[in-house]
Specification:
Elements (H helix, E strand, L loop, with lengths): L5 E5 L4 E6 L2 E6 L2 E6 L3 E6 L4 E3 L1 H9 L3 E5 L5 E5 L8 H9 L3 H27 L5 H5 L10 H14 L13 H21 L18 H6 L4 H12 L10 H12 L2 E4 L2 E4 H16 L12
Parallel strand pairs: 1-5, 2-6, 5-7
Antiparallel strand pairs: 2-3, 3-4, 7-8, 9-10
Helix pairs in contact: 3-5, 6-8, 6-9, 6-10, 8-9
Length: 297
């Protein structure tokens, strides 16, 4: 099935959603808009006065899309995923669940290292140097047993947003902008996971028993900097009280949708790259690949 990267956010006004001729029909404030279901990567529902038909949810899932439901504070409350995303899904679920611990620890090492390197590159781009993150990335061991990722995070957030900033998902400062961007990024990662026939709940590292998308949380780690940069650009030279309004959401979504990453000399969309990452992970589980693919950007 065709997979594209359109992200639709419904948060400013109430709306009625329906499906007609395989098109999502959105009626809001008397204005009707239509979008082909097959073009929707993520549908974000943040406004409490949104009504939708069964055909919207079933049609979106059948087309490979994801629906994210947010609270009134814009925090993700739930996510609807396709139940079948790949023709060999059942086989891959088994291989994924049986992956040995040393393999999972080795892959997590590469993910954690890639995340720290990407954070260092962003700091170099925005601040002139990486605050030593490039160096400590090389200290990550299998499973990140020394918790180098957390040490790097403390340096990173202080360098990026200042000494007073603390990453807190429930804070009302620009954390709310990060929350929104990460929710969209998480949904896109979950979509790529499903398209590769993997289960988003069977993780490599994250293991909170209340987290049903822990593999998405694992694999999105190196890509978080895309959202971080967008939020930094929004709040640059402004007060910390920046609203999560329509314009700032547009900026965050645009940064994700329009991101291009060089893979083998070819510029690829973020979802294309994420799918390459998840497909390579599936290949590791089935012994068709020796390691996970992680891009440099």
């Amino acid at each position: 099935m065709p997979l594209t990267d359109r992200i639709i956010d419904i948060s400013e006004n109430g709306a009625d959603l329906s499906v007609k001729h395989s098109q999502l029909v959105i009626v809001s404030s008397g204005i009707e808009t239509t979008v082909p279901l097959v073009e929707i990567a993520v549908l974000v529902i943040s406004h409490p006065a949104v009504r939708m038909s069964h055909a919207v949810l079933s049609g979106l899932c059948a087309s490979g899309g994801i629906c994210v439901f947010c609270t009134e504070k814009q925090l993700p409350a739930g996510m609807l995923l396709p139940i079948e995303g790949n023709s060999v899904q059942a086989e891959r679920f088994v291989k994924q669940a049986q992956a040995p611990l040393p393999t999972r620890k080795r892959i997590w090492k590469h993910i954690a290292k890639a995340k720290i390197i990407s954070q260092g590159k962003l700091l170099t781009k925005l601040k002139g140097n990486d605050r030593g993150l490039g160096f400590i990335a090389n200290e990550v061991r299998a499973g990140d047993s020394s918790n180098i990722e957390a040490q790097a995070a403390r340096r990173y957030w202080t360098a990026l947003f200042g000494d007073s900033f603390k990453r807190n998902p429930f804070a009302s400062d620009h954390n709310k902008l990060l929350n929104y961007g990460y929710a969209v990024l998480r949904a896109m990662t979950a979509r790529a996971i499903c398209s590769s026939g993997l289960h988003p709940s069977i993780s490599l590292h994250h293991h909170n028993k209340y987290d049903t998308f822990c593999l998405a949380d694992d694999l999105m780690e190196p890509f978080r900097v895309i959202v971080d940069e967008a939020v930094y650009r929004i709040i640059e030279d402004k007060s910390s009280d920046v609203p999560l309004d329509k314009e700032n959401k547009r900026i965050i979504i645009k940064s994700i949708v329009e991101k291009r990453i060089n893979v083998g000399g070819e510029l690829r969309s973020l979802f294309d790259v994420m799918t390459k990452v998840t497909a390579s992970l599936a290949g590791v589980y089935t012994n068709e690949k020796s390691d996970i693919f992680l891009p440099e950007f």
